[in-house]
């Protein structure tokens, strides 16, 4: 036994060394391949990286630098470093705070309506298996494909009390059409426009998540006696909760950055939409109507701080549903 074991050990020695040499060569070859793949990867992402740096990171850095300086007649036309003074001014500016409160109202009203309609449409379409389902899905999504400016102009025409169809439609029933562009109605009119435009996009995201659910789960629920409503509420909605969290974040960020629709309707709303209606419109007005580029940059970054805080709080509160916990 001893002689045999020694022979085995003597025979195993050179084999082990050979295996180590082969393993080292394989490791070196794998490392070379990985290195080449990394270089090819960097080469492919290089165009995007250049564009990302030139048109996002560098402008953001320059805007932040401007937000820390002042330039005007009081400074003799020279840029003067003022630190956080512009931010102190922004967070105590009643115009900025009023605009911020207004977009917060839009968030409270508009986000639940958009998400509720998108979820309802997705659940209904998920249960249909006919050609009507495909046509309905396309019709609901089409408004998202319309540019925001074109959509706002179209609704401005429909809302117009002078040449819109509302006067004729209400006249058929002997009623007077409300002025959708008045100060008392402009909030609801804007909510309607944005909801019309974005529900289809959110619906597609939720619908795609619904289609990934294993059909055997529905079959098991059906065998256990669950009806359609119970299946939707207790199975489908919880299983797409992570997608719904993502949709709410998109809606939250988009609403806080409200700009295009009120800017387009402002010319036909007869004073119902002031130039500082939202923080983004206020920053735009400061920059291009009053040439206060430094303070406009500060307003933009102050809004970005609120957007970041709002999104972070929402993601923290929904970390269980979104799968982050």
From TrEMBL:
This is Carbohydrate ABC transporter membrane protein 1 (CUT1 family). PANTHER family: ABC TRANSPORTER PERMEASE PROTEIN (PTHR30193), DIACETYLCHITOBIOSE UPTAKE SYSTEM PERMEASE PROTEIN NGCF (PTHR30193:SF41). It is a multi-pass membrane protein. Keywords: Cell membrane, Membrane, Transmembrane, Transmembrane helix, Transport. Residues 100-318 form the ABC transmembrane type-1 domain. Belongs to the binding-protein-dependent transport system permease family. Signal peptide: none annotated. Gene3D superfamilies: MetI-like. One of its GO terms (biological process) is transmembrane transport. The chain crosses the membrane at residues 39-65, 103-126, 138-160, 180-210, 239-259, 295-317. Residues 16-29 have a biased composition (Low complexity). It is found in: Cell membrane. GO terms for cellular component: plasma membrane. Residues 1-29 are annotated as: Disordered.
């Amino acid at each position: 036994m001893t002689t045999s074991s020694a022979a085995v050990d003597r025979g195993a020695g050179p084999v082990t060394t050979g295996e180590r040499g082969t393993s080292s060569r394989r490791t070196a070859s794998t490392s070379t391949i990985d290195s080449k793949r990394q270089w090819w990867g960097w080469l492919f992402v290089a165009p995007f990286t250049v564009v990302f740096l030139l048109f996002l990171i560098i402008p953001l850095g320059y805007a932040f630098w401007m937000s820390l300086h002042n330039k005007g007649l009081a400074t003799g036309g020279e840029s003067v470093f003022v630190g956080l003074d512009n931010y102190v001014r922004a967070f105590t500016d009643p115009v900025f705070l009023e605009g911020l409160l207004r977009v917060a109202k839009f968030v409270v009203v508009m986000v639940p309506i958009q998400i509720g309609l998108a979820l309802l449409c997705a659940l209904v379409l998920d249960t249909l298996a006919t050609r009507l389902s495909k046509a309905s899905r396309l019709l609901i999504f089409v408004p998202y494909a319309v540019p925001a400016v074109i959509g706002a102009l179209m609704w401005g025409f429909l809302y117009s009390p002078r040449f819109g169809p509302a006067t004729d439609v209400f006249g058929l029933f002997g009623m007077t059409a409300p002025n959708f562009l008045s100060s008392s109605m402009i909030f609801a009119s804007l909510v309607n426009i944005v909801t019309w435009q974005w529900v289809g996009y959110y619906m597609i995201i939720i619908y795609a998540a619904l289609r990934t659910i294993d059909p055997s789960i529905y079959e098991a629920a059906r065998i256990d006696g669950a009806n359609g409503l119970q299946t939707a509420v207790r199975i489908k909605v919880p299983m797409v909760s992570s997608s719904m969290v993502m949709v709410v974040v998109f809606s939250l960020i988009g609403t806080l950055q409200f700009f295009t629709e009120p800017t387009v309707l402002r010319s036909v709303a007869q004073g119902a939409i002031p130039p500082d209606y939202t923080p983004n419109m206020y920053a735009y007005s400061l920059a291009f109507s009053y040439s206060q580029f430094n303070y406009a940059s500060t307003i933009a970054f102050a809004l970005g701080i609120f957007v970041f805080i709002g999104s972070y709080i929402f993601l923290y509160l929904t970390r269980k549903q979104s799968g982050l916990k």
